[in-house]
Amino acid sequence: VGAAEAARDGKGKGKGKGYLPPAPPPKGKGKGKEIKQAPNIVTFKCTAHKLDGTELELTLHSNWNVDMARNQVGSQLGINAHRIKLILGDDVLEPQVCVTTAGVEEGSVLSIVILPPIYGSIAEHRLKVPDEVISANMELHDALEGLGRLRPTF
Predict the structure, then answer these.
(1) What pLDDT score does 109 carry?
(2) DSSP 8-state class, residue 61
């Protein structure tokens, strides 16, 4: 008899099947109180613009990294967040950097660059592919498409 089964009936003999019931809520201090956000975390709004002029309003938190902001943009646009680059001024924002460390604040205006779908697939599979290889792949794709030799993939 396993430990989980013994715990189920309290007698050391497993009688039932399935999972253990969820643990009861903690007693004592904090019972019934609402969990509050840490006082040093600030929520703020900024805007992001695509190159075609489309504007998105973003609600960010000061403890978020840029990748979380990219996820919000990707969700609003309906595309994979790995295909998105966010730019503030002249700086491309690195995904792992905190948004406030990167200089994003209330009212900031970000630029959105959407990369071809191949970038999303590569990032999802955590592959390291040199830019030259991606560029050659896109040139080959365009050439085959121009010759009418490109077959759709599903």
Answers:
(1) 96
(2) E
